[in-house]
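User: Can you write out an input/output pair for a complex, sequences first and structure second?

Assistant: Here is one pair. Inputs:
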Amino acid sequence: MPTKTTKSKKQEIFEEAAKLFQEKGYSSSSMRDLAQKVNLKVSSLYSHIGGKEEILQKICFENANHFLEGITQVEILKLPPSEKIKQLIRLHIKIALEDPTSITVFNDEWRYLSEPYLSDFLKMRKDYEVRFGEIIQKGIDLGEFKKLDITVVLFTILTSVRWLHYWNPETHNLTVEDLEKNILAILMSGIHTD
Amino acid sequence: MPTKTTKSKKQEIFEEAAKLFQEKGYSSSSMRDLAQKVNLKVSSLYSHIGGKEEILQKICFENANHFLEGITQVEILKLPPSEKIKQLIRLHIKIALEDPTSITVFNDEWRYLSEPYLSDFLKMRKDYEVRFGEIIQKGIDLGEFKKLDITVVLFTILTSVRWLHYWNPETHNLTVEDLEKNILAILMSGIHTD
DNA sequence: GTCTATAACTTGATAGAC
DNA sequence: GTCTATCAAGTTATAGAC
């Protein structure tokens, strides 16, 4: 019999909180809701965590770090910009499908971070966007990409994959690979036939 | 001297509320915040509006109706599916740029609608998605569009324009026409050179 | 229509017994 | 670590004087 990894109460709290924030939104989720989900009284939560916002901070910065680590890995690859952009799109798809709950909270609830966390978060996001944009610029310079506005390309790509955390791979007869192929095809070559 | 249209207090309340909801989110916005913005005491607000949610309902259903009216207009046009999809993308751009505040609240805060409004809203959204998807299907059947997964194409298009309400036309040296051209080029033909 | 006053309730967090 | 009890502040909304 395989050893079952015991989930700590703290971990359980974080996981249930993420679900709760996803369902009701951060500011509509109460510590009472959360306590009930993990079978504790409200006051007992504070033996495990510092407070409500600590959970939001963990979710937001963990995901921000995933994206920044991902782009750092891509930048050092000896590949043409077009391949780097494809890798980044795959990164977004992977992160969205791997932990949809966490990524939903990251996407939609970061603005409820208090200072100085909010500013830190926005700096990380800006950093990511700048570095993503630089790869696009290089691709245009090398003639791989059409001469389009960098900002438009950047945000079109970044937001175009922001529905994937709603995607349930099990209810669609489309493998993750096919999903990836479709998205890359649209962004690289468009939906129109040649 | 041109006649200045007088803004009713009710209208002022709705406009300031939209801004407030955009800034702080619906559930973090209080009637006290709103009262202060329009120089009234909280209780006086209730002489003009029924309550907090009435404002959210107005914003959500007004925008939902804009989109549904738009797609109805497009459907009756005698144009190939590819042109209809382009029209719809232009519709999204137009709505996003015309009233960014309202569309932000529509995009991000609809889930705080209470029943039965929430269900009504979701039905309208589903209706829009189905009709949008049918045009894509037709385009594929006629050979105008590549044989891609309808759902992937649908949501990629719908979400890819969901950053436009942050776009400030004045701080970018790109006209709205060029913005439109860039977005249509990406979605129709992709970013990659041929 | 606007105000003061207040009802009725929910919020995040803490004190201190066990 | 968990509990009961409670606090201080915030919430939407209403009653009733002017």
